[in-house]
Design brief:
Layout (H helix, E strand, L loop, with lengths): L2 H11 L2 H7 L4 H27 L3 H18 L2 H15 L3 H26 L3
Length: about 120
């Protein structure tokens, strides 16, 4: 894979230009926020799973909304889009749709974790 293809792959998961725009171009802040994001995303996924188990549509909506906002801040466009879909499905009490979307969200978060690790220099 060429360097250009590699950058494209990463930008599909983590749009660094968008994130830096949100953070006033501060690279150090960007990296700090990525670390915080990973911790928060893990908590929000746990909250989401708990809400699904309890058929708690408000809990689903809240966890997805939080994840959507945090993802937008770091330029994780696809995660933001999936979280938005989960938020809407939760609001509409469509738990079966939420369950399907959570599988997609988990896959995308795995890709995002890899992109974040590459960005902050973790093996």
């Amino acid at each position: 894979m060429s360097l250009e293809e590699d950058k494209k792959k990463i930008s599909d998961v983590l749009n660094k230009d968008l994130a830096l725009e949100n953070m006033g171009g501060d690279e150090e802040l960007f990296k700090e926020v990525l670390v915080i994001y990973q911790e928060e995303a893990s908590r929000k996924m746990s909250d989401l799973h708990t809400a699904i188990e309890e058929s708690d549509s408000e809990g689903i909506r809240f966890a997805a909304h939080s994840l959507k906002g945090a993802s937008a801040n770091i330029g994780a466009v696809t995660v933001r889009e999936i979280a938005s879909e989960i938020e809407m499905a939760g609001s509409d009490k469509r738990i079966s749709v939420v369950t399907e979307l959570v599988d997609r969200l988990h896959e995308e978060l795995c890709r995002l974790d890899s992109a974040i690790a590459d960005e902050i220099g973790i093996e």
